[in-house]
């Protein structure tokens, strides 16, 4: 009797284990099946895009069933080329690029669907330390600006004009240096002033290579500086994917809004292995304090019009485009409601 009971118990135990293993295996397979691959091409790697890295680090994309592949494609032109050629599903780049593509008569326009940053992210860096900076100090100096036609350069010119400086007459403007080489060019001795993103600007300051004297973001006001966009065809064919993606970004934006600069810096640290944590905290705090991180993914009409005004002022607006033509706010608004 005891032998029979032992045998029965052993068989029962084996059955339970087999069922548990099968269940775990099925759960794992189901989980893997749910993960959908989405390729992002980002215009640069910058703490300016902290909410994106938070979404990755905190697993917000995975929670939505998305497996993200992130590739850095330096420069708006390269990022847009990658998107249009099918090398990426979604691009994180300046909204002006979608206008350029539309103006060329594209049959498959690029649609902005989730805003990530809402101010310019660059800073004016001087070669020498200036205790009492004023913009007129740039007159007659050499200014190493950003690529012609890109948002950083257009905002730069917009701000200079705002302060009574003609960028093409009152200073020596250099804007033919490739985006990836601008910082190195300044470090090598080119220019009295340079327009830089973070964390490069703060790193230069720490190393004594330059000194931050002004913020272009504070000067230019709200603008859809960097947004997630995709081809219209992709958005139509992958509505659920776009919604999941936007929901993950919104979660990250809310997380960034409610956490300290130190917590944010620690969260995104894996994406900046060569950057000192203290520098990262300084950068995050600087961007948060000037309201650079969008708190939700909606790109509104006022921001869109401000973007086109800046482009027009720089002589780079090929044609005016209605907000509804290249911006989809429905997905972002639905995500926020739910």
From TrEMBL:
PROSITE patterns xrefs: PROKAR_LIPOPROTEIN
Residues that span the membrane, as ranges: none
Signal peptide coordinates: 1-22
InterPro entries per UniProt: SsuA/THI5
Localization: Periplasm
Keyword NADP attributed: no
Domain SsuA/THI5-like: 50-260
Annotated keywords: Signal
Any one Gene Ontology cellular component term annotated for this protein: periplasmic space
Pfam families in alphabetical order: NMT1
Annotated family: Belongs to the bacterial solute-binding protein SsuA/TauA family.
Protein name in UniProt: SsuA/THI5-like domain-containing protein
